[in-house]
Design goal:
The chain is α/β, with parallel strands linked by helices and 367 residues long. The chain is 47% helix and 14% strand. It has 17 helices and twelve strands. The protein has a nine-stranded mixed β-sheet with strand order 1-2-6-5-4-3-7-8-9, sandwiched between helices.
Length: 367
C-alpha cells in the first residue's frame, strides 16, 4: 500500500478531530504505524482518559472506513486527481512550516514550484471595476517577471488576478474551500479548467467536498503559506481577505495593500492594513523591488549559498540580475562579457531555472 493512500485514509478519518489527529501523529514514527496499529500497543500510550483511548482505537481500527478509503482512493486516481501526503515526496515545503499543515493536498495540474517566487492576490468578491483592473494589472506584470499567482478563484479580485496571469502565460494556482474536483463558484468553470492546464487547482478537502462556509477561513492559511507575499486589493473592514493577511503575518510573510479612497467601504480593510504596518503598493514595481531587496538580504545572510552549484562566470551573470527585467546589452555592460559568450551563459542559466526571459533579450532572476 502506497503512503499516499494511507494519508488519504488519515485525512478522511472520521471520529477524530484535526487536533486529535495531529497530536496522535506526534506519538508515532509514521502513518504506517497508525494504520496497522494493534490494540495492545495503543493501550500503552497512557491517554489521560480511558474514553479517549477507546475513541482512538475505534477510529483507527474501523475496517469499513478503510475499505471506503481504498475505494475512494482508486476513484480519485481514475479521475486524474493527484495527492501528496504530509510526509511524502512532493509535499510543499512551505506548508510544512506552518503550525497546522494539511494532512494531504489533492490537486489537478501541478503544485506551485518551490524554487520560483509566488504572490497571493486576494480581495473583495463584490469589487469595483477599478479593483478588478488593479488586480489584473498587478497580476500581469508580476507574471511577466516570473512570479506565480496564487488565489482562491472567488469572483471579483481573485478571479481577475488569475485570469490576467493566465493571459500572460504565467503560472496561476487556485486553493479551493471545496474538494479539488468541485468547481466553486460554478460560474468560474472556464477559469477552473484553464487553471488545471496553466497551473493547478488544489485543496486539503476530500474530493467531492462541497463548499461549506467553515472551509474557507482555514483554506486561507494555505493560500498565504504557498506565497512569499500577500497582496490585498479592495477589502471591507471584516473581509475574509483580512484573514489571509493575518495568516501571512503569523507565517512571517510580507503583506502588501493597495490604498483606496477614505470613505469607500471597499478600501476600509486595505487602508487599515496600511495603518497597521502593511506595505503600501501603488505599482507592481513596488512588489518587485521588495522581492529584490529580500533576495539580496537572504543572499547576504546565507553567503550566496543559492549560487553554490553555478560556475564562476554564471555566478557573475546571475548576480547582475534581479526581478527587474534587464536587457542583454546592459548585462553585457555590467559583466564585461562579449555578447556571444553572454548568450551562452544566459541560456545555461535558463536551462537550470535560475533566470527567465520575460521578453526578447530581457532577463530576470527567479531564485
Amino acid at each position: 500500500m502506497v503512503s499516499e493512500e494511507l494519508w488519504h485514509w488519515y485525512n478522511g478519518l472520521k471520529g477524530l478531530s484535526f487536533l486529535e489527529k495531529r497530536e496522535l501523529l506526534a506519538r508515532f514514527d509514521g502513518i504506517e504505524e497508525l494504520y496497522f496499529i494493534k490494540e495492545q500497543h495503543l493501550r500503552t500510550l497512557n491517554f489521560c482518559r480511558k474514553e479517549m483511548a477507546d475513541k482512538v482505537f475505534l477510529a483507527l481500527s474501523d475496517q469499513k472506513q478503510k475499505e471506503e478509503s481504498r475505494q475512494s482512493f482508486q476513484k480519485l486516481q481514475k479521475e486524474g486527481i493527484h495527492i501528496v501526503g504530509r510526509e511524502t515526496e512532493g509535499y510543499p515545503k512551505k506548508l510544512k512550516q506552518i503550525p497546522e499543515p494539511p494532512f494531504a493536498i489533492y490537486y489537478y495540474g501541478s503544485l506551485p514550484r518551490e524554487e520560483a517566487p509566488a504572490v497571493a492576490v486576494v480581495g473583495a468578491r463584490q469589487c469595483s471595476v477599478y479593483g478588478e483592473e488593479i488586480a489584473a494589472h498587478f497580476a500581469r506584470q508580476l507574471s511577466k517577471a516570473g512570479i506565480q499567482i496564487i488565489s482562491g478563484m472567488a469572483r471579483g479580485i481573485d478571479a481577475s488576478a488569475q485570469r490576467a496571469a493566465i493571459s500572460e502565460e504565467g503560472r496561476a494556482y487556485a486553493v479551493l474551500g471545496s474538494g479539488a474536483d468541485v468547481c466553486y463558484p460554478k460560474e468560474q468553470k472556464l477559469l477552473y479548467e484553464q487553471l488545471k492546464q496553466k497551473g493547478g487547482v488544489l485543496s486539503e478537502e476530500l474530493p467531492g467536498t462541497q463548499p461549506f462556509s467553515w472551509n474557507f477561513p482555514k483554506r486561507n492559511r494555505i493560500i498565504s503559506a504557498l506565497a512569499d507575499g500577500v497582496l490585498i486589493v479592495e477589502a471591507k473592514e471584516n473581509s475574509g481577505s483580512l484573514i489571509t493577511a493575518e495568516h501571512a503575518l503569523e507565517q512571517g510573510k510580507e503583506v502588501y495593500a493597495v490604498p483606496g479612497r477614505v470613505y469607500d467601504s471597499l478600501s476600509a480593510g486595505t487602508n487599515r492594513l496600511i495603518q497597521e504596518g502593511a506595505k503600501m503598493v501603488c505599482e507592481p514595481e513596488d512588489i518587485l523591488l521588495s522581492f529584490s531587496s529580500q533576495k539580496t538580504a537572504v543572499s547576504d545572510k546565507r553567503g550566496k549559498k543559492e549560487n553554490i552549484f553555478l560556475e564562476t562566470k554564471e555566478k557573475i551573470v546571475y548576480a547582475s540580475l534581479s526581478l527587474q527585467p534587464k536587457h542583454i546589452g546592459q548585462i553585457a555592460e555590467d559583466t564585461g562579457f562579449p555578447l556571444s559568450e553572454l548568450a551562452y551563459l544566459l541560456l545555461e542559466l535558463e536551462i537550470k531555472h535560475y533566470i527567465k526571459q520575460t521578453a526578447k533579450n530581457y532577463y530576470i532572476s527567479v531564485l
